[in-house]
Amino acid sequence: MRSLRAFITMLVIVVLGFLAWNGYIEPELDGESTTKPTASPSRSSITAAPPVKPAKGVTVTSFRKASRLLNVVPEDRQAYLRSYFGKGWIDADKDCRDTRQEVLARESLVPVTKGCKIYLGKWLSYYDNKTWTKSFQVQIDHLVPLAEAWDSGAYQWTKATRIRFANDLKEKRGLVPTTSDLNYDKVADDPQWYVPKVNKCKYIASWIAVKARWSMTVDQREKEAIDRVMKGCPDRKLTITRAKIGLLPFAAGTGTTNRNVTIDSIIYSGKSEKIILHNTGNSPAKLIGWVVRDEIGYGQYRMPKTVIPARGTLTILSSEGRSRVDAAGNPVQHANWGDVWNNSGDTATLIDGKRKVADICRYRGDNTGKALC
C-alpha cells in the first residue's frame, strides 16, 4: 500500500512538472503559494513584510493623482517637422524588424510568423474595439502624437531623445495598433479634440502615463478635457516609468547671455521680413539657446549655435533657404515659414540662452518698410 501511494505521489509530481515546463499551468507569482496552508501560524511567528519600494525611476500612483504630475503651461507652438523625430521607424536591436514590426509582433493576439515583415496576425484596435487580421489594415499610432510631443516639451530635447520617444518599445501604452481610418481622424490632436468613443478611461490613463514618462506638459484646455473624462473613470493604480531625457543647452539653462546683443531693426518690405540683431560689443558674441519670438509666442525662431562678430550683425529672414555669411562676414540665417511673424504689426522679443528677455522691439506695418528699435 505504501509503495502504491509513493508511486502515485511520484506520478503526480512528474505530471505537474511536465505541465509547468510546457506552459500549461501558470508558475507561482510574487512568491505566493497557490495552495492553502495546512495550519495557521501563531501570531508571534508573523513578521510584517517590508513595503516594496518602486524601482528607481518608477512612480506608482492612482489614476487621478497621476494627472497632477503634468505641469500646465501654454504650448510652445512653433514650426514642426516630422524629421525632428528621425526619418521614421528604426530597428533599434538590429534584428531586421523595425519598430512597427516589433509592435505588430508584440500586440498580435495570435502567434505571427518569423521574419522581418509581418503580414498576418490578429490585432485589436481598442479605439473602436475592432479586430484586424492583415497588417496593412492596421496603423501603429503614437498615442501622444509627435507634433503634440513637440509642443509639449520635445522641442527642448536632443534629437537622439526624440528618436527614442518616437520608437519607444519600453512603454507599451505609447505605441498602439489602431484602425487606419481612426488614426487619420485623430491626426495630431490632444484630448481636447480627440478621445475615442470607447475605452476612454484606458486612453486617458495611457495619455497621462506617456506624458508623465517623458516629462511633457499639458495646456489648460487639454488638462480640462483630461479631468472631464477622469470624472467617469474608476480611480485605479497607475504605474509610470520615467524615461531618460537629454536636453538641448538652452533647455538645460546652460545657454549664453550677452548684454551687448540687441534688436537693431525689423525690415518688413520686400520678399522676406528681416530681423537684424546687433552686437554692440568689441568682442564676438556667441548665441546658444537664443530665441526671437512674436507677441503671443506662436511664431518664434530658435537660433542654432551662432556667433555675431564684434560690432557685427545677425540677419534672420522669415523664409526658407540656407544660412550663409554675407560679404561683410556677418551671419545670415533663414527661418522656416511660420517661425517668424507677418508684417501687420507685432512685438518682437529677443530671449537669451538663460531664458531672460534681452530686448523688445514694437513695430507696426507702415509705408517705410523698416522699424528701428
Spatial ordering of strands, largest sheet: 14-15-13-8-7-18
Q: Tell me the Rg in angstroms.
A: 29 Å
Coarse morphology: elongated
Mean pLDDT: 81
Q: What is the number of helices?
A: 8
Share in β-strands: 15-25%
Count of separate structural domains: 2
Number of beta strands? 18
- List the uncertain runs: 4-52
Q: Which structural category fits the helices and strands?
A: alpha+beta
Q: Roughly how much helix do the residues carry, as a percent range? A: 10-25%
Described by strand count, sense and barrel closure, the largest sheet is: 6 strands, mixed
The N- to C-terminal Cα distance equals 106 Å
> What order do the helices and strands follow?
HEHHEEEHHEHHHEEEEEEEEEEEEE
Essential attributes:
373 residues; alpha+beta; Immunoglobulin-like; six-stranded mixed β-sheet; elongated
Blueprint of the fold:
Elements lengths: L1 H20 L36 E5 H4 L32 H9 L12 E6 L4 E5 L3 E5 L3 H6 L7 H8 L8 E5 H7 L13 H14 L6 H11 L6 E5 L19 E7 L6 E6 L5 E3 L3 E3 L6 E3 L3 E3 L4 E5 L6 E2 L5 E4 L11 E6 L5 E7 L6 E3 L1
Parallel strand pairs: 13-15
Antiparallel strand pairs: 1-6, 2-3, 4-5, 7-8, 7-18, 8-13, 9-12, 10-11, 10-16, 14-15, 16-17
